[in-house]
Specification:
The complex is a heterotrimer of chains A (156), B (787) and C (293). Chain A is of the alpha+beta class and 156 residues long. Chain A is built from five helices and five strands, in the order ββαβββαααα. Helix content of chain A is 33%, strand content 16%. The relative contact order of chain A is 0.16. The chains are: A alpha+beta (156), B alpha+beta (787), C alpha+beta (293). Chains A and B meet through helix 2, helix 3 and helix 5 of A and helix 1 and helix 19 of B.
Chain lengths: 156, 787, 293
């Protein structure tokens, strides 16, 4: 039986009726049109589906939409201000941290939440924060460099 | 060195912003009104005759709009090489591996489609299963394809020079065996596609593919449609690495059902299905015998390889050739013999994956060369330097090294890694190792016998003159071809990077063989450069007529037209342009005539200005059987030094640092080249230390998840010092050649050689897990006790 | 592995209501906390409960509280908080360390300590350090509340002493004696997203800052159907002066006290050898912490 829930996505409240067996990833993508969240494996092994729920980055494929009722959710679509990119996004583009882009949404959100609570992370701290997000294309190095650069940008 | 404006820079990717903001659309993001969702039924058994398929229950399920099996799909065979077309959309009389496709369903939603697929009843008569390639070639083994009763799908026998005679002249001869494990592409985006059909315009398929052209041809051939009425276009693609370079049942079944239902149909693989589909790196069983003189001169190589091919051929013919041919360089080797056998087994089919058949062979040989160097008391880098080829050398198997920066790469990594300070001076448990490798810049011949161009391109200048539209059928899969081709177009035309708008990966734009064998920078690059030069020439011709200046006295750079002579009066043309743009607030001004104005003038004179380009390699390679595979207009090469720490109690290997020097001819985009190097190294590291597709006794993939098929995480990959070497390839556009696959070649052996340096033990089987190292250390300890 | 099967979903407002639901729905209901294990099993077709009871909104079961010198941890506390919270890092560093190598940061932001216990996987990361620290679990049902030492809580893979209608609400660790230290080492293939090949949690209590070993616990993980004490190795340490040689000796004994299987992550022989190495290393780590206090 469908449940009526409210998801506050990117600061906007969405009321939606969902079956309990739908994941947050599915509802974000299919019901609310936030296609920037990707599904790479469906079982929490790859991090492509990362979104921020109540301040913490999580695998949205393993969150039931009904469990996120009332939660504040940030997707990749929610971190830029109009045409202005978030410093993490800017840095990813500038430092070559993006190749196929499929891991990018999740990677950026994990990086952003790191920088929100640690404005000057060391390289090991950056790598640890991203250790749940797999990338097959880049070898991670330019991603780490981009996060480091973004930290510098955010301080200004 | 010529001064370039747009190329050899670090311009950001054309698609970076879209990907960073979540706006990029991949196949599974697409939807159309009235769309149906597809699901597959796949064989749960590894080898069986199909006695009966009953789809009646599935068809009756409310919401189901189509159910198809071999009956509806037909029996036209397809595959990769026409000489080995051994696949059909669905199994006809036999299932040959767990995952072989039996049927497909299209329904109003995914739940219904899956439920319906589960309602299809299949009567399997199970046949004996063979999973081991050495079992498969034995007398009496179950026959997987009737045409190949001994299960050897392809066999290669080549000899250059006289190996047996040559070995007799050697001072040192060594034989070693080596085996890797079956891999998976493990791209983050599972395959997905969306097909729709219009009786007038034909079939359109959006697919997560590396090779729209090959998919287009396969769809046309198998579904009986004119090629021109089949359009395959890429949405954004989330990685390929090889397994996405050929048509698959997902694409064929989706298209079939779209035609039959008249509605769009979308279907995607789960991650598990990605493993079942595979078409990834083979397992190779190598035995190498190498002979040298005591001064370190390489004399002869005998290479025997058995490949576990899985149930179908896929790219396998090319693979079995590459497993031999790609050892012909980068060292001078006058005598080489290769015997290769690709064997069918009842497992998912193996195909091409980054580095193709060369990766395992290179790992085996570069480790063996290190052992030989050690036996001769020579430094491994010195040993290699002594034997490397140079520009202009031709291998014993007729590969022409039109450029080869192998020496520069080796010297660069020796310097960059601090080799002299570290080699032989590290404590037990720490090691440093080196290896080399090379790869083709595009296969010399297309996968199907043809005189086709390998790449075509079109450039259309916008009629107002301000924008350059580049239409390239080349496939962007994350490697950055859109960006690089945009740069080449801009440079060749003389405009700025931001003036070019690229559209790609669509068979409506022409022919491009796709993103495989590291071909696009060179081959698609040539076509784009030609198209750009043709468009530029047309514009300059018009200018020449209108200004009465010879074309040779004009140049275009950074969007400006430059004249050799002083005082050229273009005011009439400018005035006309401004008059035609009354109301615009930014009229062209300044002392230089702009390309925008020139292009506009050209349009007014001639109509739409279009330049086309078409590339195919010239005469390449030898005349012997199989000469085609490995021929290429150019070869990229790489040298790598790796440092490891081995925990001597647990056997755990940590790669601490990697130094890679790659000769890409000329870096069109320096950031992209580095990214390809780092990405290649991460795949090589994964294969060296963690990656292995495992099977149970019934032929089922035992670890079809990214949790148990382990690709490196951010904590596993060290920093890589990347050194770009530019040898200026004469056959490449602006001197460019490949980087996508050459860099992975030295990775595994550099790690193996470093592990030996740290521990004193050699590992001849991948992956180098902690358990494997522990067992070898224990064996070695036992052996020393006995001695 | 596409979609979750269908189920009914309940979100009780307190533990009493949760217990009532579990009793009413009998065997067909499962509690869902973080869901990082349960939902994976459901997607893989290994589990299909008719109802899920979400306890995320129940107050009072997600806090870390000092209690009588010890610590009480709400079962619904997310594992990442065990990595972040000062109180745990300082007083129960072994638990912080184990939490930091569980899964990935994304998993830790959802998975709960209660879930990691109740799922009773032989390779779970939190039970060994908790057992080493003498933890107890508090179980609540409609009729009663009881505590079970974690030592006696696990029966086998997926099986615990929890009764139908009971909910695990808190984990309690009493104050540790002075000069106590612990360490947890997990042998993994990669450095993240891994289930242990082998893991060991050790705890030592010394007689004084330079004293002999008064109490020792060595918990082996992933080498038996449940986390187990290496009893003979523990005994060999009591009353002895700590030293590298002693720890190596204890390791060798521990290596004979496990009964691992060959599985996708490693062979049995290797695992036993690694028990020896990890025991030695965790004892050294525990000693360093014991002396530091």
């Amino acid at each position: 039986m469908k449940k009526l829930i409210t998801l506050i996505v990117n600061k906007k409240a969405f009321e939606v009726a969902v079956e309990p067996n739908r994941t947050l990833a599915q509802v974000l993508r299919e019901d609310l049109g936030f296609l920037g969240t990707k599904v790479g494996c469906g079982i929490g092994d790859c991090g492509a589906c990362t979104v921020v729920v109540d301040g913490r980055p999580v695998n949205s494929c393993l969150v039931l939409a009904v469990q996120a009722n009332g939660s504040e959710i940030t997707t990749i679509e929610g971190i830029s201000e109009g045409a202005e990119l978030h410093p993490v996004q800017e840095a990813f583009v500038e430092y070559g941290a993006i190749q196929c882009g499929f891991c990018t949404s999740g990677m950026i959100l994990s990086a952003k939440t790191l920088l929100d609570r640690n404005s000057n992370p060391s390289e090991p701290e950056i790598r640890a924060a991203l250790s749940g997000n797999l990338c097959r294309c880049t070898g991670y190095q330019k991603i780490v460099e981009a996060v480091h650069a973004a930290a510098g940008m955010m301080k200004k | 060195m010529k001064e370039y404006s747009v190329i050899n820079t670090r311009v950001p990717r054309v698609d970076g912003r879209a990907k960073a903001t979540g706006k990029a659309r991949y196949a599974d993001d697409l939807s159309m009104p009235d769309m149906l969702y597809g699901a597959l039924l796949q064989s749960p058994v590894a080898h069986a005759r199909i006695r009966k398929i009953d789809t009646s229950k599935a068809k009756k399920l409310p919401g189901v709009k189509d159910v198809v099996t071999a009956q509806e799909a037909g029996a036209v065979k397809f595959g990769v090489s026409p000489a080995r077309y051994d696949e059909t959309i669905f199994c006809i009389d036999k299932a040959r591996y767990v995952g072989d496709e039996i049927a497909a369903v299209a329904a109003v939603d995914l739940e219904t489609a899956l439920e319906a697929a589960a309602l299809i009843e299949v009567e399997y008569e199970e046949l004996p299963v063979v999973l081991d390639p050495f079992e498969a070639i034995r007398e009496g083994a179950p026959v997987i394809h009737e045409d190949y009763p001994n299960n050897i799908g392809a066999e290669v026998h080549q000899e250059f020079g006289d190996v047996e005679e040559a070995l007799k002249t050697c001072d040192l001869v060594r034989t070693d065996k080596f085996v890797n494990k079956k891999q998976d592409g493990a791209f983050l985006e599972p395959q997905a596609c969306l097909a729709f059909y219009d009786p007038g315009r034909g079939l359109t398929l959006y697919s997560s593919t590396q090779a729209p052209h090959y998919v287009q041809r396969t769809l046309a051939m198998v579904l009986g449609l004119p090629i021109g009425k089949v359009r395959v276009a890429q949405p954004c693609v989330g990685g390929g690495f090889g397994p996405k370079a050929s048509a698959n049942t997902l694409e064929l079944a989706t298209s079939l059902m779209a035609i039959r239902t008249g509605r769009p149909v979308k279907m995607a693989f789960t991650r598990e299905q990605v493993f079942w589909h595979s078409r990834a790196r083979h397992q190779f069983f190598h035995e190498l015998t190498t002979g040298v003189k005591k001064d370190g001169t390489l004399v002869a190589l005998k290479n025997t390889c058995y490949l576990d091919g899985g149930a179908y051929s896929s790219f396998g013919i090319a693979t079995v050739y590459y497993a031999g041919s790609l050892l012909g360089a980068p060292y001078r080797l006058p005598n080489m013999k290769y015997d290769g056998y690709r064997v069918y087994t009842n497992k998912p089919a193996n195909g091409a994956q980054r580095g193709h058949g060369g990766v395992a062979a290179r790992a085996a040989w570069e480790q063996q060369l290190d052992i030989i160097a050690a036996d001769l008391g020579m430094d491994p880098i010195e040993f290699r330097l002594k034997n490397i080829m140079q520009r202009g050398d031709i291998t014993c198997n007729d590969f022409n090294m039109s450029s080869l920066g192998m020496k520069e790469c080796l010297e660069a990594v020796r310097r960059g890694s601090g080799w002299e300070k570290k080699r032989g001076k590290l404590p037990r448990g720490k090691g440093i190792g080196v290896a080399c490798g090379f790869f083709v810049s595009g296969a010399g011949f297309p996968i199907y016998r043809s005189e086709t161009f390998h790449s075509t391109a079109m450039i259309k200048l916008s009629e107002d003159g301000g924008t350059v539209n580049l239409y390239t059928p080349a496939a962007e899969i994350g490697q950055g071809s859109d960006t690089v081709l945009t740069q080449i177009a801009a440079e060749a035309l003389g405009v700025r990077y931001g003036d070019v708008k690229v559209s790609s990966g669509d068979t409506d734009f022409g022919v491009d063989l796709g993103a495989y064998s590291s071909r696009q920078t060179l081959m698609s690059g040539h076509a784009v450069k030609q198209a750009a030069e043709e468009a530029r020439h047309q514009v300059l011709e018009v200018l020449s007529e209108q200004l009465n200046i010879p074309v040779e006295e004009m140049d275009v750079k950074d969007g400006l037209v430059l004249f050799k002579r002083e005082g050229v009066d273009f005011s009439a043309l400018r005035t006309r342009y401004i008059k035609e743009h009354r109301g615009w607030t930014d009229p062209p001004s300044g002392k230089h005539f702009t390309f925008v104005e020139a292009a506009r003038a050209a349009y007014l004179a001639r109509g739409t200005i279009v330049g086309t380009g078409a590339y195919k390699p010239g005469e390449l390679g030898g005349k012997y059987k199989g000469a085609a595979v490995g021929t290429s207009p150019a070869y990229g090469c790489s040298a790598q030094v790796v440092e490891v720490t081995v925990d001597m109690e647990t056997g755990q290997v940590t790669v601490d640092k990697m130094t890679d020097a790659h000769d890409c001819g000329f870096a069109i985009n320096r950031t992209n080249v580095e990214g390809q190097m780092q990405g290649s190294l991460s795949m090589g590291l994964g294969e060296a230390l963690f990656e292995e597709v495992k099977f149970d006794g019934k032929g089922r993939v035992a670890n079809p998840t990214l949790g148990e098929y382990r690709i490196p995480t951010c904590l596993d990959m060290p920093n890589v010092e990347t050194i770009i070497i530019e040898s200026n390839e004469p056959n490449g556009p602006f001197g460019a050649k490949e980087v996508g696959e050459g860099a992975i070649m030295p990775t595994i052996p550099a790690i193996l050689n470093a592990v030996y340096d740290a521990t004193g033990v050699r590992i001849n089987e991948l992956p180098v897990t902690s358990e494997r190292v522990f067992d070898r250390l224990k064996e070695e300890k036992e052996r020393r006790k006995e001695v | 592995m596409h979609l979750l099967p269908k189920f009914d979903y309940y979100e009780p407002r307190d533990i009493g209501e949760a217990c009532k639901l579990l009793s009413q729905l009998k065997g067909s209901a499962r509690i869902i906390a973080g869901g990082t294990d349960l939902l994976v099993n459901m997607k893989k077709g290994l589990s299909a409960p008719g109802s899920l009871v979400g306890i995320g909104k129940i107050p009072g079961i997600s806090e870390i509280e000092p209690v009588n010198g010890g610590i009480s941890i709400g079962a619904h506390l997310i594992i990442q908080k065990l990595v972040e919270f000062d109180l745990i890092r300082k007083k129960l560093s072994i638990l912080s360390r184990a939490a930091s190598v569980l899964g990935s940061p994304l998993v830790r932001n959802r998975a709960t300590i209660g879930g990691n216990i109740v799922n009773a996987r032989p390779a779970a990361d939190l039970p060994p350090p908790l057992i080493a620290m003498g933890a107890r679990v508090r179980l609540k049902s409609r009729r009663q509340e009881r505590e079970v030492p974690l030592d006696r809580f696990f029966r086998g893979p997926g099986e615990t002493a929890i009764k139908p209608g009971e909910v695990l609400t808190h984990i309690v660790i009493d104050a540790l004696p002075p000069f106590t230290g612990g360490d947890y080492v997990k042998l993994m293939h990669r450095r993240s997203l891994e289930i242990a090949i082998v893991a060991v949690a050790s705890r030592i209590t010394l007689d004084g800052p330079d004293g002999v070993i008064r109490d020792a616990r060595i918990i082996l993980s992933s080498v038996a159907p449940k986390a187990t004490h290496a009893v003979r190795a523990e005994k060999a340490l009591i009353g002895e002066r700590p030293s590298e040689r002693l720890f190596e000796h204890a390791g060798q004994i521990a290596a004979t006290e496990c009964t691992p299987i060959d599985d996708v992550r490693g062979g049995a022989g290797y695992r036993c050898s690694m028990v020896g190495v990890l025991t030695k290393r965790t004892l050294s780590g525990a000693l360093r912490e014991a002396k530091g206090q």
